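protien #1 (seq + structre)
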Amino acid sequence: MRRSRLKGGHVPASIIALSGLAVLGLSAPASAHIIQGGAGGFTSGFEHPLTGADHFLAMFAVGLWGAQMGGRPVWSLPVAFPLIMVVGGIMGILGVPMIGIETGIALSILALGLAIAFAWHPPEWGALALIAIFAICHGYAHGAELPRAADPADYAIGFVLATGTIHLIGIGVGLGLQRIHEGRFSRVLGAAIALGGCYFLVT
């Protein structure tokens, strides 16, 4: 089994701590991200991840991180994320009480950005556990929208396809950047994503 590789040793603990905050939900109950109107259908579902900067950054980061890690995570992380999002989506549809969803979404961008910036290579199960926490948050936010959508099934199909597209973009960019200066540009991009997470966290 490949051991976690990271210079310094403090970042994994920081990322785990951020994940814990997402679970604890230290902010008020989520409401800002949830669409209150009746938007729905395939087009709305496909456009939403592409036009929502927070979701785009997180899903792009999943693909980028998988490409940076190499091996099975190249495909296992992007496949697992939308599958686990379904669980969060069902929780949102059922109205399962959860708080701190917005905080969890912002922390997902920050933590994934840091993982890329510091080239953190945990065991595959550790990476999957991390993204599972954040996938629940992203899925819940969108699942809460589905009951009010004009066509929930078409909306969900569009959203999943857009999510997969963003993951593929992240993988493509990551694999390309890994060939340039030993992946330093990937790490710079990860730092930029982490800054985006800070922005969403404070706003």
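ok now protien #2
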Amino acid sequence: MSLQATTDFVDLRALRLDTARSLLEQSGDDGPGCGNATDYLQGVIDGLCNLSQHDPLTGLANRRTFRAALERELDRVARSGESALLLMLDIDHFKAINDTHGHTAGDAVLQALAHTLANCVRPMDTLARYGGEEFAVVMPACQAAFAFAAAERIRCTVADLPVRVSPSLEIRITVSIGGAFAQPWVRSTTSLWSERADQQLYAAKDAGRDCVRIELPPDSTVTAEEKSFLFSHFAPPDTHAANVAAPHAPHSAP
């Protein structure tokens, strides 16, 4: 039986949609309107899909969605050889914020940072809350020459951000940033790419926090002189030129 034939016989009254509607309402989604049965069910499905792809506190992509974005980008880099940068960001001393001002203040910091980061990245970039106080950005078509500047712009913007955690209190936060490029023409994995970026994040924290560390891709540029040296030994001999330059000597007398 085809999918269309199956859905024609769906009785919405037999579906347990109360929990789905409750989840949508709790997330601030008004839920599906009062259209026909198909529109109503499609609205519920779309709302649940959106919930499953985003972090409920910040509204950013969640870890599952970000992993899918990493997979797509690794595939593109492996096929095209283009560049892609992964940035991992961590709020410095976030535990102290929670311990001093409470978890409500910590949530306010996470939300403020998410809003700021969203204004720092391009529409083509994928920004996610990676877990706890850690965020991540995958940046397609980001050349190595601009990587540090892009990350430093984020760091400086966050450092200049006043976060109001209560009607009478504003605090300042900083972030440590680590980054790594996907290897062009290489079929890598999301785990390996994330691990390399994480290592740079740890290096930024070890360097005193509130700084940027990026693992740049290896420089594979070959100069003209190097090309000449490399390929001169493999050029096929020009037999015509050799014959012209070295004609047969006359036979000597017996």
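The chain has two domains: 9-53, 63-215.
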